Amino acid sequence: MAYIQLEPLNEGFLSRISDLLLCRWTCRHCCQKCYESSCCQSSEDEVEILGPFPAQTPPWLMASRSSDKDGDSVHTATEVPLTPRTNSPDRRCSSSDTSKSTYSLTRRISSLESRRPSSPLIDIKPIEFGVLSAKKEPIQPSVLRRTYTPDDYFRKFEPQLYSLDSNSDDVDFLTDEEILSKYQLGMLHFSTQYDLLHNHLTVRVIEARDLPPPISHDGSRQDMAHSNPYVKICLLPDQKNSKQTGVKRKTQKPVFEERYTFEIPFLEAQRRTLLLTVVDFDKFSRHCVIGKVSVPLCEVDLVKGGHWWKALVPSSQNEVELGELLLSLNYLPSAGRLNVDVIRAKQLLQTDVSQGSDPFVKIQLVHGLKLVKTKKTSFLRGTIDPFYNESFSFKVPQEELENASLVFTVFGHNMKSSNDFIGRIVIGQYSSGPSESNHWRRMLNTHRTAVEQWHSLRSRAECDRVSPASLEVT
């Protein structure tokens, strides 16, 4: 009887072969060795971990190898030897060695197949970020919301912005007849034309009609006397460089026929708005604004020119400004002298109906609450834009400078009666406003240097209310 002899295998070589074979994953459904388990589909609950060859021998394989040495010696008859067989008579080996090698390899494979752990499940849980604490708290941002009652909601509205009687109504959609019937302030006739050769804009104020009669001081009734109207012209947004017509006495249909020129480039003129304000002259109180007309110059043909009748609309400015005064202050510590320069004034309130005003400036030095010195400029006839360029010097020691105040009062000269008050400001310890305080502070910080600044004139009552120094002068 012939026996098939197997080739003797080296123990190290068998170990490497087993490692190579066992590196393949085994599909636990059909017990076939493959890389991707393509022979069957995995369920949704369990996911087979597949992948490349591991870089190192798995721990469960190392544990199985160590258990082989002390394992059980009982084997089943179904084990099939995996070693190759050959009938070559030249290769001979003892039957005991061959059986031992085949038995060892088969036993390892069967033992590992039974001990191989099942495929792990991937359990994906949401990741929570936050500070570790004994009690978990949600980190979602909370939205702060305030419950509004109907009263709180409607309290935010400003009724005057939606009132039909507001002076800020949009009159662009109303005709002149509708504006005239609504406000009954009269109409104004004027014209404009731009001179490209000389680069100036000419505004001609022609006449007005149907002006309302003046309002009495108490506001309860209208006086039967006629108005004394005049017109102020400016190009917005510049209200400082304005022009003013003469006053027409006791008439509701004044005829002006006056021309005024504004030196301004053509492109700049197209960006301006022509504002014409009709004012009622009052010798004994503040002048009252009757109405206004505003025309954006971009909407008219300036080169061709034209003239219009426009209905007057109410103005938010019920009283005209009193004018402006340009002053220069300079203090010399070594000499103890306070030098004051009255340079000029512009757009002063007109105090005389026939010939404008004859303005002059009175300068009074007040130390504490005591009047120390009074000086005044000369008066200029028939103008509301006077140029003075007059200088005055007051003796003020440096230790008394902080308690000094200068009161500037502009009057209209009157030969027949007392001078007409136009406006006042106070500069110094008891300044009449922020602009005046800023001018005095700049002068104190820059000795021996003249500091110039424009100031808007204020009423006597306003100065008396905020400055004690104004109460000490007349």
Automatic annotation (TrEMBL):
Keywords: Differentiation, Membrane, Repeat. InterPro entries: C2_dom (IPR000008), C2_domain_sf (IPR035892), Synaptotagmin (IPR001565), Synaptotagmin-15/17_C2A (IPR047897), Syt17_C2B (IPR014705). It is a peripheral membrane protein. One of its GO terms (molecular function) is calcium-dependent phospholipid binding. The keyword 4Fe-4S does not apply. Belongs to the synaptotagmin family. This is Synaptotagmin-17. The lineage of its organism: Eukaryota, Metazoa, Chordata, Craniata, Vertebrata.
